[in-house]
Amino acid sequence: MPDPRLSKLANVLVDYSTQVRPGEWVHITAGRIAVPLVREVVRRVLEVGGYPTTSLDCDELEEVYLTHGNEAQLQWASPVDMFVIEAMKVSIFIAAPENTRVLSAIDPARQQMRQSAYRQWTDTYMRRSASGDLRWVMTNYPCLALAQEAEMSLTDYEDFVFGATFVDRPDPVQCWQQLYAEQERLVKWLAGKKMLAIRGPHANLSLSIEGRKFINSAGDQNMPSGEIFTGPVENSANGWVEFSYPAITMGRAVEGIRMEFKDGRVVKATAEKNEDFLLKMLDIDPGARYLGELGLGTNYGIQRFTRDILYDEKIGGTFHLAVGNSYPETGGVNQSSIHWDFICDAKTDTEIHVDGELFYRDGHFQV
After folding, report:
1. Percent of the chain at pLDDT above 90?
2. How confident is the model at residue 141 (pLDDT cuts 50, 70, 90)?
3. DSSP assignment of 243-306, as one string?
4. Quick one: how many helices (H) and strands (E) in the chain?
5. For residue 108, is the peptide bond before it cis, meaning its omega torsion is within 30 degrees of 0?
6. What is the pTM of this model?
7. Which of 122, 179, 351, 353 is the one with CA 20 to 30 A from 13?
8. What is residue 1's predicted lDDT score, i.e. its pLDDT?
9. Would you say 164 and 312 are in contact if contact means Cβ atoms under 8 Å apart?
10. Is 20 in contact with 26 (CB distance < 8 Å)?
11. Can you tell me the distance from the alpha carbon of 138 to that of 92, in angstroms, rounded to the nearest whole number?
12. By the 8 A CB rule, do 274 and 251 touch?
């Protein structure tokens, strides 16, 4: 018998997050150890009349490709992947890594080459998502590798995941709907505002949000969620930020990061660990040194750093900035082959003012 919380999570993914309709193609991508959750998702998709297909996500296979592929092969994007991203109506991605460090020894230049090859795939995904033509959600399967990253036992991590997604409660959908309503009030208050300034021990940054839209993320694309975010005006960021937590991507953790911005661009970046990797990523293309996102975490049920951006950027009392590709639905136009989030604590002596009015203080909204 599957864990009943897995069945409830599958129902939330299909019924609430992606709202699968009869006759729709639903493509599920998952790690091989996530089969117990995949089975429940496939079951629910069939029950509501959808057409499920599945594919394997495996970092070990990606390691083989990145290690042994020649330059032409690394610059090649699979036509199968392109067809799927252009044709499916719903995408459900379930992360279940078996080794979160499997790509850590790969030359970043090879990883960047591979990412650049999938630029068209990324652009298609962004465009279809922004227009509503593609509905998608990503989540985690509670597995040993992620539990170890979070410094938890597997049992504790399972409880953490199911608690963060509300599936340990009688009516998880109602919980997500309540969070949506709370965030919608903030999004409506921000509509039409122009300038945002963050001041505190970790940041002194100003940027423009004029003409940009804040998105209410309440479990429809990330599960769990709990954030409001936008794409800042590309040439507007000025100041500095010292990020509180490691930024992890491609199997590498960059720690002690400080960035300085001038007219939107990162003009100086330093790190206490893996600085060379940070700088290489920022130079992957012209858009990588500009902001694609500003987000505010609102999920106060997540209060610990797990080394997983799906959870960590939602921590209540934090803000995050992402360099690289912007989400078109926010009005952002920055383009890059990367979208990399950096998280900063805002719980102590930190204020955010919007058009001169106090909006946020020490981790809590003031409006």
Report:
1. 85
2. very high
3. -SS-EEETTEEEBS-EEEEETTEEEEEE-SBSHHHHHHHHTSSGGGGBEEEEEEE-BTT--S--
4. 12, 20
5. no
6. 0.83
7. 122
8. 65
9. no
10. yes
11. 6
12. no
Which residue's structure tokens are 């009869």? 22
Residue for token digits 């953790």?
253
CB-based burial label for 217 (10 Å; 0-12, 13-18, 19+)? buried
Q: CA-based diameter of the chain, in Å?
A: 57
In this structure, the dihedral spanned by the alpha carbons of residues 220, 221, 226 and 229, taken in order and rounded to 10 degrees, is: -110
Give the domains, in start order, of the chain with CATH numbers.
4-169 (3.40.1830.10), 173-365 (no CATH)
**Token pair of 330 as six digits:** 């926010």
Residue of 275, 254, 264, 362 whose CA lies nearest to 316: 362
CB 360 within 8 A of CB 346: yes
Q: Please report, for residues 231, 234, 235, 240, 267, the alpha-carbon distance to residue 264 in angstroms, rounded to integers and kept in the order given.
A: 12, 6, 4, 11, 9
Q: Using one digit for the tens of pLDDT, what is the confidence trace for 230-281?
A: 999 999 999 999 999 999 987 789 999 999 999 999 999 999 999 999 999 9
Reported as half-sphere exposure (CB side, CA atoms, 13 A), residue 89 has a value of 14
In the block, which residue shows the tokens 């491609």? 250
